[in-house]
Amino acid sequence: MGRSTVSLQQIADAIGVSPATVSNALRGTGRVSDKVRDRVRAAADRLGYVPSHAARSLRNGRSANVGLVVPDFSMPLFPAFVQAFEAAARARGLALMVADAMGTPGDQAAAIRDLEARGVDAVIVIPVRDTDRARMTPGVPLVVVDAAANPMNAVSSDHRDGGRQIARHLVDLGHREALVVVSAAASHVSDAREAGLCEVFAEAGVSVRRVACAPTFDAALDLGQGLDLGGATACAAAYDAQAVGLITAFRARGVAVPGDVSVTGFDDVIWGRIVDPPLTTVAQDLALVAERALDIATGAAEAGPRLFPVTLVARGSTAAPPERPRDPQETTTDTE
């Protein structure tokens, strides 16, 4: 069947529902059960249905475009975020316009203005660190995806609980002294993850030392080359990029992971699956975050903070601590 000839009525007839139900299911609006929505979308895919953006614009005077601003495409998490948003937008018959903030608040503000000038109906922003709230005031609805502590946050993963899950995992393995590596720049996400880690570590009597660096592979690699582990047998990083940088530096120094020190990250990006050993981390449900953000952007759901659960992914970078205390002279490089 030709893609341009398939109508809502044909989809409705194919599965025995009304055209209105089909319309609501495809747009993500109205009261449609998940089961019916899945049946409608499956039938639409099977029949080759393509929504007419032009017809929709003529009916309601809106372009059905949504903008998405991500912090930095060079970080592996954000292409995955874009894929999740693209899938959710496509299912709703929306066109997604994506902009890269290039890691700076100034470029982020410029990207928001540019998307608004191009006629988007709403802008979804995953903010860069050190974002100035006053510079995020577009003339269209704004949906912020960040962390619970951000007053503008509309939807996010439960970053604090992810920190709790990592800490419980390390405590259960027997670790009693840990390094926590966080973002050197102001970040609600890093702060929430750190708070969850420290909450559980404090309850378990684990000694914690905090270290800050940029949330990048290179910054963590530099940090790890001279980092004094002291008596720490675990290193919990706020981001996978930091964790992978630390593992790489430790291996170059002859520090075994996890034999001498366990290392964890957060985000479950591809780097953590290919590093040796594979990284213990926390996975976000990016699809759920994207679905909710688009529901708010399109008016299908009321605005209001919503946190989605995260999942611990235990891999080979964590194990029980070594039986004997490590001699710091064996694992510390001379930085003089």
From TrEMBL:
SUPFAM superfamilies: lambda repressor-like DNA-binding domains (SSF47413), Periplasmic binding protein-like I (SSF53822). GO terms for molecular function: DNA-binding transcription factor activity; transcription cis-regulatory region binding. Keywords: DNA-binding, Transcription, Transcription regulation. The keyword Transferase does not apply. Coiled coil: none annotated. Signal peptide: none annotated. CDD domains: HTH_LacI, PBP1_LacI_sugar_binding-like. Pfam families: LacI, Peripla_BP_3. The keyword Signal does not apply. Residues 6-60 form the HTH lacI-type domain. Residues 315-336 are annotated as: Disordered. This is LacI family transcriptional regulator. It comes from Mesobaculum littorinae.
